[in-house]
């Protein structure tokens, strides 16, 4: 029994020491080791101690959770900021020029300056073609050292262009046979074809053959030819060539150049007109219009008709000589006038080295056009059907002007022309120079 009491005593002492240890654990927990002491206490004290241990763990768990939560919270915004940064450059990319312009005005002005300069450069480049329409045409002017081959190509191209503009080109003298053509050509010197066409009906009506005109009274012929000017000299010429035809050629007009130039009043020009239009033999008609235009186009610098004929004849095949003459003369009478060419309405302006010598404004140039191009009657009383189909208007007979048509002699230089009955109704009266 005593032993049992002694054994019980140490057990009690152990029991008593346990709270001491617990106290010591509490003191230790107070000293700064809370995690280990409460863990030992909870394991030693049993169930009730486990409850507080759980409480402490629960209390510590939220502490850890709170400690962990900020840790993931920080990376989360970092992760969120990372895509925000990725998205930001996409959004910032268009925004970058704005702050760049705002923050660095010098750089912006520097950048704007080349932009303005580029626009300024673009502006003259755009303006250059509009203003350079004449500039583009000016380079067509042949150089001083233009080769003969280049000249031939340029001249033939101009002739092709004129052929498209005047497909109805023809001799503008009324005639029915070679005799009437040779007489009308002689009378056309120093006057217009219109005046000749208005005069020859009375002449050929009274003297239809070379024999009749050869036996005519000179004074009567002079009276008929008075409207053409230089009527006395022309009377001698037509009566003289009629006598030569009657006496030397049996009343027939010869078809050779050598024979034609022997007739009174007939030169190479008249001979080529007759050969080309009455006999279908090639010939170049070097009249005042032809001389002016071939020099203006720099086809030749010759001034004498014979030399001009030789120079131009070398640029074209003989088969084109007759129509070439018609094309050039038609263009000289209608558009490329002597005093004031209608450059702004010229179809061959890009090919013309003399572009700009006349009126370049299209509206003003349009008012300078003559004959069918300007809506006025032509020079022939009986023009070819092709001319009428192209919009040409027949000329009125002498002393009987048609309403709204050209008065007699109106096509002479400086003569006034009333408003036309052609395709320009209501247009102001213009002058046919």
Keywords:
mainly alpha, 433 residues, two-stranded antiparallel sheet, 1% strand, disordered C terminus
Topology:
Blueprint: H1 2-31, H2 36-45, H3 47-68, H4 70-73, H5 75-95, H6 97-103, H7 105-131, H8 133-137, H9 148-165, H10 178-187, H11 193-206, H12 210-214, H13 218-225, H14 231-248, H15 257-260, H16 268-278, H17 288-296, H18 305-313, H19 321-334, H20 362-366, H21 385-389, E1 415-417, E2 430-432
Antiparallel strand pairs: 1-2
Helix pairs in contact: 1-2, 2-3, 6-7, 10-16, 13-14, 17-19
Mean pLDDT: 74
Low-confidence stretches: 1-67, 69-139, 405-433
Through-space gap between termini: 167 Å
Can you write the helix and strand succession as a string? HHHHHHHHHHHHHHHHHHHHHEE
Tally of strands: 2
Summarize the biggest pleated sheet.
2 strands, antiparallel
Strand content: under 5%
Write up this protein.
By secondary structure, the protein is mainly α. Helix content is 59%, strand content 1%. The protein has 21 helices and 2 strands. A two-stranded antiparallel ribbon has the order 1-2. Helix 2 runs antiparallel to helix 3. It is globular. The chain starts with a helix and ends with a strand. The N terminus and C terminus are likely disordered.
